[in-house]
Amino acid sequence: MRARSSSFLRLNLLLKTGDTVTLTAPTTPSMLARFLEVRALTESLAAPLSAEDQTAQSMPDASPTKWHRAHTSWFFEEFLLAPTGRYRPFDPTFGYLFNSYYEAVGPRHPRPQRGLVTRPSAAEVGRYRTHVEEAVVTLLQDGLDPEQAEVVELGINHEQQHQELLVMDALHLLSCHPFAPAFLDQQGSARAGLDDLDPVPLTWRAVGGGLHEIGHEGAGFSYDNEGPRHRVHLVPYEIAERAVTNQDWLAFIADGGYTRPELWLADGWGAVQQHGWQAPGYWQEQDGQWAAFSSTGLRPLRRAEPVCHVSFYEADAYARWAGARLPTEAEWEVAARDVADLRGQLLDPDRLHPGVAGRHMVGDVWEWTSSAYLPYPGFRPVEGAVGEYNGKFMSDQHVLRGASCATPVGHERLTYRNFFPGAARWAFAGLRLARP
């Protein structure tokens, strides 16, 4: 999803205890159904976009929709099908065009130039996807060995990750158009909820200090950066029971939040000056009223929604202005356990927009934390091409927690560590506050 793209994949092919190797393969019928469902969802997300929409690239950190569709197919081709020795590649040049960061696999087309690849066409990429899907289905029906099952599981999660990227990148592209065309049609607009409601009052919840364990453990998929599970010591703190809303942010703007250098980190103030930030990404002021570009085009700002498309720098400055701070990722994870059964808006192809900020901590918008993206104690990257990136990206990135309205259902979890550079604003990213 940007500098992150496919950057933090996990391939736990071998779970070693001494000289014993334990391998567990999911059942093939369930995996086949999930594979086909995920592949179909990618095409559903791309369907509202024209071939021209799918080819253009709005900035170096974003990728064309056509590229996401092809790259997620290449992943299965490269890591699942080619090693069988029986697979016929669709086009030998696609490995160069649709590799992302896999240095061990071979050379690849420069990321900033993906939008210049007009061939293959979007239709040809569709045929490529069908070719790969048919080969994967045949392999699944014939039966997988445990290592292949792990690759399929990873490939499914990898494609879900790119589904969110596809939405983010396409929305950014459309936001650059002078007439702000909608991603979705008017039916989608109706489902997005146009009522301007009063926000839920901001309340706080106390969380006890002491030793806590964080990180993924047990059954279920996770990326390698979510472990190992380990202990952290926390000082007692309070956390806001809802995310910061658009109405909250309007007060920050009205109080000169974007003109007061004392509120900002040095790099953040530099970004404000360099980019001319006066409001969150996609916001526009029209005749004294604020509107925001979204999946349904340019619409009046809705006060009760969580603020979205803000950078880490903006989130940090707002927290300082509000007399609070951003939570650490450990504080966020520990606090989220008490509301683990609540979810906000996750990916709905007919909506692609946050809901109203409520008491949940997962959904609507990713939430910036104060934590730098660093390895957990004892972290060791998986060997080989698939696992080569996590260590590379554990520098100059900031952790976000939760999930967003573009995160596929079932891909979210409390231990998920998303990450972006400090100035990134095209993700569905907001914040909640913490305080002593």
Q: Descriptors for this entry?
A:
3-stranded antiparallel sheet, disordered N terminus, 4-stranded mixed sheet, alpha+beta, 436 residues, globular, paralog of FGE (formylglycine-generating enzyme), Four Helix Bundle (Hemerythrin (Met), subunit A), 2 domains
In short:
The chain has 436 residues and is an alpha+beta fold. It is 33% helix and 13% strand.
Structure description:
- The protein has 436 residues and is of the alpha+beta class.
- It folds into two domains: 15-177, Four Helix Bundle (Hemerythrin (Met), subunit A); 187-435, paralog of FGE (formylglycine-generating enzyme) (Alpha-Beta Complex), CATH 3.90.1580.
- It is built from twelve helices and 14 strands.
- It has helices spanning 28-46, 51-55, 65-81, 94-98, 122-142, 146-175, 186-191, 246-254, 266-275, 312-321, 329-336, 390-393; strands at 15-17, 20-22, 204-207, 210-214, 230-234, 237-240, 283-286, 289-294, 297-300, 366-372, 398-402, 418-420, 429-430, 434-435.
- The strands form five sheets. A four-stranded mixed sheet has the order 12-11-10-13. The chain has a three-stranded antiparallel sheet with strand order 3-6-14, covered by helices on one side.
- Helix 3 (65-81) runs parallel beside helix 5 (122-142).
- Mean pLDDT is 91; it is low at 1-27.
